[in-house]
Specification:
Alpha-Beta Plaits; Chitinase A, domain 3; 43% helix; disordered C terminus; EC 5.2.1.8; rotamase
């Protein structure tokens, strides 16, 4: 077998592989000799079939098997011998001429094919001694815990019917029918719908017009759907709703005590506070970690500058760009609305894609050199988390991960990356800093790995392109109005 390098330009490689016809014939004859003793052919006793007859009957099919095995196995072996790693699956090209293919299968012509690929560049790891990060820490106050419990208690709050007029905080039970240009629209009708005034669950302007109504009242209210409303046929439209109030109920007083804790499924108010504190600390901890991670990535980005495989960058850019255009379409906006142009946005998000690929390669190298591995148990936990996000679709998700090439890697990659970040956190200089929750949650350039200048919907697109969750979908839309977001389902 001859292996000839025909292109070595930057990261691009092209290899020509030639296996002489006589070698292919020898391999075929070895396979035929093995088959001869196993096949059953009428007129011949088992094991007594002449090789020439077996060759006549099965030669081409066996040769085809050999060609497929070589095409499948040799690229990996060749790359290993060359000490190279391909950034993507190598592209394999061989003759498509039927006559030439026939000659190869008849062992009358050499088997030739080419491998085209980009190598992953060699990365010389640098010291992280100079990397310094600030870890922002928030102390959770008793007031915040109480505030959060009160919000949670809304789910257990009871209401008592009253005869007076509806006020802010009251629950209104009503029938409604929504119309645009005098015509009822899909999803704009409901009966016995319950709405707590001030919950901001319905579109702007709807709830405020219920204030002052009492049981038995009828009223036509007028509202405007937001310009970015998910249902395109309603976005920006003026609508009227025929309202019939059936009941007005005032909220019962809520006390944070053991009785409330029991209603919420917890044995005591102290345990409830403990749980809520843990939840808040976990939420802040996630934000803190993302900010620390961002600082590390920014400094690694400054440390490592090298050419990244173009196919990886292209794939990453396409993921980002697809999300950008999805967000624009959903919001009904254009690049001009975002104070940019498509050309400028492409340029900036291309730079973002290059950064992500480069940092991904750096983190991968750090992890491999450190012997970091993702366990089967960790993969199973990640898969379970995916299943929890989409109740009722468990089978489809399991089938996806079983049958889709590379799907398992989408579970492994974020786990591996976080373990590498953990390793780096143990090595870099970390300074803790007490901050308020407002400071912690302040929007400082969102992800930190988005373009510095304005390009497309910055607050969502680049961030979503990072989520794995690429299986992320909006919830089923049951009714279009009058909720603020169609994805929230029925008006309740």
């Amino acid at each position: 077998m001859q292996v000839i390098e025909t292109l070595a330009e930057g990261l691009k490689r092209e290899i020509k592989v030639v296996i002489p016809a006589k070698d292919m014939e020898q391999r075929m004859n070895e396979r035929l000799a093995d088959v001869k003793d196993k096949v059953r052919i009428n007129g011949f006793r088992p094991g007594k079939v002449p090789v020439s007859h077996v060759k006549k009957m099965y030669g081409k099919s066996i040769m085809a098997e050999l060609v497929n095995e070589i095409i499948r196995d040799q690229p990996t072996a060749i790359l290993s011998e060359r000490g190279e790693k391909s950034a993507t699956q190598p592209e394999i090209v061989m003759t498509e001429d039927e006559k030439e293919a026939e000659k190869i299968l008849s062992a009358q012509a050499d088997l030739e094919f080419t491998l085209s690929y980009e190598i992953i560049p060699a990365i010389e790891l640098k010291s992280v001694d100079g990397i310094k990060v600030t870890r922002e820490v928030v102390d959770v106050s008793e007031e915040e815990i109480t505030e959060q419990i009160e919000k949670i208690a809304e789910s257990a709050r009871t209401f008592e019917a009253k005869k007076g007029k509806a006020a802010d905080g009251d629950r209104v039970t009503m029938d409604y029918l929504g119309k645009v240009d005098g015509e009822a629209f899909d999803g704009g009708k409901d009966e016995d719908a319950e709405l707590v005034i001030g919950s901001n669950r319905f579109i702007p302007g709807f709830e405020e017009q219920l204030v002052g109504l009492k049981a038995g009242d009828e009223k036509v209210i007028t509202v405007n759907f937001p310009a970015d409303y998910p249902a395109a046929n309603l976005a920006g439209k003026e609508a009227t709703f025929d309202i019939t109030v059936k009941e007005v109920a005032a909220p019962a007083a809520t006390e944070i005590n053991d009785e409330l804790a029991t209603k919420l499924g917890v044995e005591s108010v102290e345990k409830l506070k403990e749980i809520v504190r843990g939840q808040i600390e976990s939420q802040y901890g996630n934000v803190t970690r993302q900010k620390v991670k961002r600082q590390i990535l920014d400094q690694l980005d400054a440390l490592y500058k090298f050419e990244s495989p173009s196919k990886l960058v292209d794939a990453e850019f396409e993921n980002i760009w697809r999300q950008i255009n999805t967000d624009l379409a959903q919001s009904g906006k254009t690049f001009a609305d975002e104070d940019t142009t498509e050309e400028a946005a492409r340029e900036e998000y291309r730079a973002l894609a290059e950064r992500r690929v480069r940092l991904g390669l750096v983190l991968s190298e750090i992890g491999e050199k450190a012997g970091i591995e993702v366990t089967e148990e960790e993969m199973q936990r990640s898969l379970f988390a995916q299943l929890q996000q989409f109740p009722g679709q468990e089978k489809q998700i399991l089938d996806f991960f079983r049958n889709t090439p590379g799907a398992a890697a989408s579970l492994r990659a974020p786990i591996f990356e976080e373990k590498v970040i953990d390793k780096l956190l143990a090595e870099v200089a970390v300074t803790d800093k007490k901050v308020s929750k407002e400071e912690l949650l302040a929007d400082d350039a969102e992800d930190g790995d988005k373009p510095a200048k304005k390009a497309a919907p910055k607050k969502k697109a680049a961030a979503k392109a990072d989520d794995a969750a690429e299986g992320e979908e909006a919830a089923p839309k049951k009714k279009a109005a009058p909720k603020k977001k169609a994805a929230e389902g029925d008006a309740e």
